[in-house]
Design a protein that fits this description.
The chain is an alpha+beta fold. The protein contains 8 helices and 4 strands, in the order E-H-E-H-E-E-H-H-H-H-H-H. Strand 1, helix 1 and strand 2 form a beta-alpha-beta unit. Bound molecules: glutathione (GSH).
C-alpha cells in the first residue's frame, strides 16, 4: 500500500489532501519537525536521502517532491483523476499551474519568510528582488482567480492542491492581506471536506511560527 511520510506543518499536507480527494487508501507516517531547528527529523532522511516532506513510498521505492508525487499518484494510481489528459485544451494550463507552484511561485515566498525569521537577514538587494517577484506573481494569480473559482476554468484539479500551499505559506507574511481574491480562494480550498479530513489525520497546520507582527491572522 502507498505510504505517505508527512512532516508536520508542511507541504506534505498536500499529498494527504490529494489522497483524500481521490479516496485512495494510504498508510500515514507522521514525522514531527525537530523542536529546536524546526527542520526535518532524522527519521525522514532514513526514507529518502533528501529528508523532505512530502515523501511517499510505493512499490519498494521512495519518491519526493510535491509535483512529482502529484503526477505519480494521479496518473499511476488514479487513472488520471484530478489531472488533465494530454488531449484536453486545458492540458497546458494544468501543466503550468501544477509546476508553477514550486518552480517559480514558492521561491520568493520562502525567501521572504526566511528574511522575517532572520531579522531582515536577506539584505536590501535580495529583498527588492523577491518582493517584486511576489508582487507580479500574486497579481497574476489574483487576475486569473477574479474570473474563475479555480486555477483551471473547468474546475478543481490537483493543480489547486499544489498552488494552495503557496498561498497558505504566504499568508503569515501578510501577502493575502490586501488580496481579497486570493484570501477567499484559500478559504474555499480549506473548506473542502477532503482538505478537512487531511488536516484531521495529519494534524491541523500551524504556520504561526512564520507570522509577522504586521500580519494578523485573516478573519
Ligand atoms: N519543492 C519541494 C520542497 C520540499 C521541502 O522543502 N519541504 C519542506 C517542508 S514544507 C521540508 O522538508 N522542510 C524541512 C527541511 O528542509 O528540513 C516540494 O514541493 O516537495
Amino acid at each position: 500500500m502507498l505510504k505517505v511520510h508527512h512532516l508536520t506543518h508542511s507541504r506534505s499536507q498536500r499529498i494527504l489532501w490529494l489522497l483524500e480527494e481521490l479516496g485512495l487508501p494510504y498508510e500515514l507516517v507522521i514525522h514531527p519537525r525537530d523542536p529546536v531547528t524546526v527542520r526535518s527529523p532524522q527519521s525522514l532522511f532514513r526514507i529518502h536521502p533528501l529528508g523532505k516532506g512530502p515523501t511517499i513510498e510505493h512499490d519498494g521505492g521512495a519518491l519526493t517532491e510535491s509535483g512529482a508525487i502529484i503526477d505519480f499518484v494521479t496518473r499511476r494510481l488514479a487513472a488520471g483523476r484530478l489531472s488533465v489528459p494530454e488531449t484536453s485544451p486545458e492540458f497546458a494550463d494544468y501543466c503550468f499551474w501544477l509546476h508553477y507552484a514550486e518552480g517559480s511561485a514558492m521561491g520568493p515566498v520562502v525567501f521572504d519568510l526566511l528574511d522575517g525569521m532572520t531579522g531582515n537577514g536577506c539584505g536590501e538587494a535580495l529583498r527588492g528582488f523577491f518582493l517584486n517577484e511576489i508582487e507580479h506573481s500574486f497579481a497574476y494569480m489574483s487576475e486569473v482567480l477574479s474570473g474563475q473559482e479555480h486555477f483551471l476554468a473547468s474546475g478543481f484539479s490537483a493543480a489547486d492542491i499544489n498552488m494552495t500551499w503557496v498561498l497558505e505559506l504566504a499568508e503569515p507574511c501578510g501577502h493575502l492581506q490586501d488580496r481579497p481574491v486570493l484570501a477567499s480562494y484559500v478559504r474555499r480550498m480549506q473548506a473542502r471536506p477532503a482538505y478537512l479530513r487531511a488536516t484531521e489525520k495529519g494534524g491541523k497546520q500551524d504556520l504561526g511560527m512564520f507570522r509577522r507582527a504586521s500580519a494578523p491572522p485573516l478573519t
